[in-house]
From TrEMBL:
<feature type="domain" description="Nudix hydrolase">
    <location>
        <begin position="18"/>
        <end position="148"/>
    </location>
</feature>
<dbReference type="GO" id="GO:0046872">
    <property type="term" value="F:metal ion binding"/>
</dbReference>
<dbReference type="InterPro" id="IPR047198">
    <property type="entry name" value="DDP-like_NUDIX"/>
</dbReference>
<keyword id="KW-0479">Metal-binding</keyword>
<dbReference type="InterPro" id="IPR015797">
    <property type="entry name" value="NUDIX_hydrolase-like_dom_sf"/>
</dbReference>
<dbReference type="Pfam" id="PF00293">
    <property type="entry name" value="NUDIX"/>
</dbReference>
<protein>
    <submittedName>
        <fullName>Nudix hydrolase</fullName>
    </submittedName>
</protein>
<dbReference type="InterPro" id="IPR000086">
    <property type="entry name" value="NUDIX_hydrolase_dom"/>
</dbReference>
<keyword id="KW-0464">Manganese</keyword>
<dbReference type="GO" id="GO:0005634">
    <property type="term" value="C:nucleus"/>
</dbReference>
<comment type="similarity">
    <text>Belongs to the Nudix hydrolase family.</text>
</comment>
<dbReference type="GO" id="GO:0005737">
    <property type="term" value="C:cytoplasm"/>
</dbReference>
<keyword id="KW-0378">Hydrolase</keyword>
<dbReference type="GO" id="GO:0016462">
    <property type="term" value="F:pyrophosphatase activity"/>
</dbReference>
<keyword id="KW-0460">Magnesium</keyword>
Length: 164
């Protein structure tokens, strides 16, 4: 059974040297008809910007669990969280403090009809090029570029996975 309430507050979130640790995902799927790659973007809570799901990394969860939770809460999708795309340091627009952001791809297995932030956000499937255009965060655009490059060279991705 899933909880239909988003976690709130920052008192149980992780910080490192004063930086809030945030985790996000690039939810993706392949269209059934033509096999074309699509990614899912969501609106910000105020609806002025488009982005990928992301939020604070809680003390009681792994980084992959945090990524999965954010996709469920904000975008209403569940799936397989894959190997980390990277880590970015960026300044928060609203609070002016630095964050450390980790991004992961998520192969979506299910798109839910009801999810915690359904009434706060819009979700839109789009082609990679469109998502790159509308995404407001430079670091998420970079993560998208890393993801696309990884898909172009799966042999490198697999080899790196075994080296860890």
């Amino acid at each position: 059974m899933m909880c239909l309430v988003s976690r709130t507050g920052r008192e149980l979130q992780r910080y490192d040297m004063g930086r809030r640790l945030v985790v996000g995902c690039i939810p993706y799927r392949y269209q059934n008809g033509n096999g074309e790659l699509e990614v899912l973007v969501i609106s910000s809570q105020k609806g002025h910007a488009m982005m990928f799901p992301k939020g604070g990394w809680e003390l009681d969860e792994s980084v992959e669990e945090a990524a999965s939770r954010e996709c469920f809460e904000e975008a209403g999708v569940v799936g397989i969280v894959e190997c980390e795309l990277g880590k970015w340091c960026f300044k928060s627009k609203s609070r002016g403090i630095y964050h450390e952001g980790y991004m992961f791809p998520m192969l979506v297995g299910e798109e839910l009809e009801i999810w915690p932030e359904k009434h706060l956000r819009q979700r839109v499937w789009m082609k990679v090029e469109e998502a790159r255009e509308v995404c407001q965060s430079w670091w998420m655009k970079e993560a998208l570029d890393v993801f696309v490059e990884r898909l172009k060279s799966p042999a490198t991705f697999i080899k790196e996975d075994f080296l860890e």
